[in-house]
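Consider the tokenized backbone below.
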């Protein structure tokens, strides 16, 4: 039997309903916060991701699904959505109509990581990006949005981790200090970090290898190197989060796995997921639009890991299945076409109706209706058709009423 690809997964009925519920609540909240949906392709020129995410990151170095298409172009299945949304913002000159754009997108991303619980090779993200606002208040707005969403989904075991990555003015000072710090420690670092430490020392802070983590415990903190503007910006984020009663921790290790960030970065972490504890991550990336050929435009955003969020929500609701409003139990194959017409008419009116096409006994059809958790059953056989009335049974109260077959669809709708 052909199995699915390692790290990919099916989302089956029973679980899909949780995803639909999350999506409905999230989209409604994003729209309340002024976001508009954008749909972007799942494949882009490789260069877009290499330039945005950074050549020295794990994603670009070893996790992208990159190949030459039939015309020989180097293309990549998107590992994230921010770069594509920036490309669309620039390509369609959205900034010319209105520089401030709040955009969201939901869809699959692809990273060839080592699969484990909460980490997949195809996973889904809910992305929200704000272009054209430099104020740190919009970083706070994004965190408020995330915490509101988690509270609406009854997800409580979460904490916002925040950090500042400074700006092109102050980060070089920190990088130099970090490079000095790392110079004497090369032999204790993993081979990846030993190789990258001079070109991109920030990546070492993000490394999950225990030896590197231990080595970095005493590393310099970017907080000590922030320029007055970055410091003021970060203070404003903290003060406004406090004013809104949003709990957070300042986490100096939070450099994120993508190179485009500056100033405030954040992650929402949870205790419910084990090792893969980040359920959402984001931050400011003020230089990226310009870097990709657009105007000098500040930007900030986040992505929620949909799979991880669904996993936490599922801990609260083990199974969420939509049940039929009515099951049509039809006796005698000769009556199936007529009852099938009713079933279709009920469906058109928005009633979830099911029927059995096998011609089995009433007892086994009732069993099936019970198993499907149908709220009502309509029983129709030769006798009912002759007498001009069918039996409607309420499966919860077990009450049965007789309803006229003439105008049956309206009669059923009136009784449900
Ligand atoms: P990221 O931290 O790489 O950021 O991913 C965001 C979230 O996607 C993570 O917190 C996690 O929940 C989920 N995620 C990432 N990789 C996997 C995986 N292999 N399996 C399951 N879930 C995963 C970004 O992608 C940035 N583009 C976020 C952003 C938007 N920054 C600014 N705007």
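A designed sequence for it:
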């Amino acid at each position: 039997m052909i199995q699915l690809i390692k790290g990919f997964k099916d989302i089956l009925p029973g679980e899909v309903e949780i995803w639909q519920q999350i999506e409905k609540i999230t989209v409604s909240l994003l729209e309340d916060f002024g976001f508009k949906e954008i749909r972007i392709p799942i494949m882009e020129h490789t260069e877009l991701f290499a330039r945005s995410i950074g050549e020295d990151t794990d994603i670009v170095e070893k996790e992208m699904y990159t190949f030459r298409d039939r015309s020989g172009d180097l293309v990549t299945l998107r590992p994230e959505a921010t770069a594509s949304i920036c490309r669309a913002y620039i390509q369609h000159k959205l900034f010319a109509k209105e520089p401030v754009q709040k955009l969201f997108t939901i869809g699959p991303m692809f990273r060839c990581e080592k699969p484990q619980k909460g980490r997949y090779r195809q996973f889904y993200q809910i992305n929200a990006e704000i272009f054209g606002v430099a104020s740190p208040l919009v970083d706070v707005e994004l965190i408020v949005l995330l915490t509101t969403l988690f509270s609406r989904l009854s997800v409580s075991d979460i904490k916002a981790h925040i950090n500042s990555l400074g700006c092109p003015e102050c980060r070089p000072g920190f990088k130099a200090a970090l490079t000095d710090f790392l110079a004497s420690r090369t032999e204790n670092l993993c081979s990846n970090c030993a190789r990258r430490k001079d070109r991109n020392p920030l990546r070492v802070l993000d490394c999950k290898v225990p030896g590197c983590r231990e080595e970095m415990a005493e590393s310099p903190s970017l907080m000590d190197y922030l320029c007055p503007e970055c410091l003021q910006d970060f203070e404003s984020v903290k003060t406004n989060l406090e004013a809104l009663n949003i709990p957070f921790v300042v986490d100096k290790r939070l450099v994120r796995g993508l190179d485009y960030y500056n100033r405030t970065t954040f992650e929402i972490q949870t205790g419910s997921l084990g090792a893969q504890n980040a359920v959402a991550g984001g931050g400011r990336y003020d230089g990226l639009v310009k870097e990709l050929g657009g105007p000098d435009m500040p930007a900030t955003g986040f992505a929620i890991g949909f799979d991880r969020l669904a996993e936490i929500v599922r801990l609260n609701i083990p199974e969420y299945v939509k049940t039929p409003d009515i099951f049509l139990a039809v006796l005698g194959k000769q009556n199936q076409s007529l009852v099938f017409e009713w079933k279709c008419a009920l469906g058109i009116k928005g009633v979830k109706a099911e029927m059995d096409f096998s011609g089995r006994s009433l007892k086994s059809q009732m069993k099936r209706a019970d198993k499907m958790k149908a709220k009502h059953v309509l029983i129709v056989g030769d006798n009912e058709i002759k007498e001009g009335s069918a039996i409607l049974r309420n499966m919860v109260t077990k009450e049965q009423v007789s309803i006229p077959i003439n105008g049956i669809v309206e009669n059923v709708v009136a009784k449900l």
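Residues 80, 82, 111, 113, 119-120, 123, 125, 127, 129, 257-258, 278-283, 285, 301-303, 305, 307-308 surround histidyl-adenosine monophosphate (CB under 6 Å).
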